[in-house]
Amino acid sequence: MTSLKDKNLNYYQTYKLVRISKSGKTKTVVNNRRVAPSNIGAASMPDYAKLRNEATIKVGKNVKSFAGRAEDSFFLDLRVFDLLYGGDLSEAGDDTLAGFNVQSVALQVPQSWVAKKQNAKKNPIIGVWSTTQKKSANGKFQQISCPGNPLVNEVVIPLKLKDAFNGLKPTGDAAALKYVTHPELPKLVEAVYGIEAPKTPRNDLVSVFLTGVKGLNMPKGKITPSEQLRLNMSIPVTAEPNRLGVIAGDNRGFPNGRRLGDDVIDIALQVVEGELVGSPNDTGDGVNANDVAFGDTFPYPALPASGSNADPHPSTGAAAKQSSDRGGLLGIVPSRNKSMAAIGVGLMALIAGIGGATRRRKA
User: Fold this and answer.
1) What would the 3-class secondary structure string for the chain be?
2) Rounded Cα–Cα distance for residues 347 and 352 (Å)
3) How many percent of the chain have pLDDT more than 70?
4) Average pLDDT over the chain, rounded to whole?
5) What distance in Å separates the CA atoms of residue 304 and residue 286, rounded to the nearest whole number?
6) Alpha carbons 93 and 208: distance in angstroms, whole number
7) Is the confidence at residue 330, as pLDDT, over 70?
């Protein structure tokens, strides 16, 4: 198969992209465009990059769109859920998602599209979240997910309330305030590893997750606490990004937006463990970068793993070497010797998953 319209492509998906204004007015931006298919293998798809390029479309001035398969851009060791890396730090340092693909949507739009009153110069700070909905038994669509910042639902919200939080609208997020100021994770780390949890209430987490950081990405005026990925678009792009973003002094990195190369796991762990409240630490999972390089041009995520690859999550090679080289302590036990870093942020608006629709939340 050599093109998205090749007669040998037996099945294909299409998508429609609609822009919804604050008043509810709609405008179709992309209609009936084909999605980049799964990378079946080299025999069936000898030049998959060509298919990716064909699925990447320009639909207006400074507007680009892509929908299709991509290598999972998240890099982390998911064994954190096995009693925090095995209960003895023995399970860490392997990129669990290496070799796995996801259905992705990537958009590039003018800043004026997302800025308040379409004035990015005067109002450079935006908040981004996504909503995923499915039809319920009554035939109506019901929201089942509403991520903004990564890891809030996974790390901050307690298990019994995760589904309820996923169904909230932005104006209802303040209901989770007590779980932000009194997070569970530091208490679990203290129980398992004996590392003292930072004192509560954690007002530093409120600024990171609910209001924006003052002087960085907190909007002007009255703020409705809401969990969203905030970005100050006026901050210049960093020539040499630091994977730890703001806490390493790179103000165009997470939590000021999120770049694909930002190590959101290590950043979130360090912040939750007290990086911003006098407990500097090097907490991390030992996975510092994606297993394959991201692209230099839109849509940026790496090409999906090929079906021809018999070992997409390698038992030997890069991912396995990373695990063996960085296994053990991996800097997970905090070292209280770093100075507190400045705060800053950056963004590439990528929604991984099927049926994601973005909206700008009221800040």
Assistant:
1) CCCCCCCCCCCCCEEEEEEECCCCCEEEEEEEEECECCCCCCCCCCCHHHHHHHHCEEEECCEEEEEEEEECCCCCCHHHHCHHHHCCCCCCCCCCCCCCEEEEEEEECCHHHHCHHHCCCCCCEEEEEEEEEEECCCCCEEEEECCCCCCHHHHHCCHHHHHHHHCCCHHHHHHHHHHHHCCCHHHHHHHHHCCCCCCCCCHHHHHHHHHCCCCCCCCCCCCCCCCCEEEECCCCCCCCCCCCHHHHCCCCCCCECCCCCCCHHHHHHHHHCCCCCCCCCCCCCCCCCCCCCCCCCCCCCCCCCCCCCCCCCCCCCHHHHHHHHHCCCCCCCCCCCCCCCCCCECCCCEEECCCCEEEECCC
2) 14
3) 87
4) 87
5) 23
6) 26
7) no
Tell me what pLDDT residue 326 has.
46
What confidence tens digit (pLDDT) does each residue in 174-232 have? 888 999 999 989 999 999 999 999 999 999 999 999 999 999 999 989 998 999 999 99
Taking 50 as the threshold, does the pLDDT of residue 22 lie above it? yes
Report d(CA 299, CA 316) in Å as an integer. 29
pLDDT of residue 321: 52
* Cα–Cα separations (whole angstroms), residue 288 to 190, 243, 319, 322, 323: 24, 8, 11, 9, 11
More confident residue, 53 or 323: 53
* Dihedral angle of Cα 40, 358, 207, 222, to the nearest 10 degrees: 170
- pLDDT band at residue 350 using 50, 70 and 90 as cut-offs: very low
Question: For residue 355, is pLDDT > 70?
Answer: no
Residue 35 has pLDDT above 60, yes or no: yes
Are 252 and 348 within 8 A, CB to CB?
no
Beta bridge partners of 362: none
Residue 154: the pLDDT is 82
Question: Whole-angstrom Cα distance, residue 328 to residue 88?
Answer: 9
| Alpha carbon distances (Å) from 58 to 30, 104, 118, 356 | 10, 17, 21, 20
Residues in contact with 261: Cβ distance below 8 Å, sequence separation at least 6, in sequence order: 241, 243, 289, 290, 294
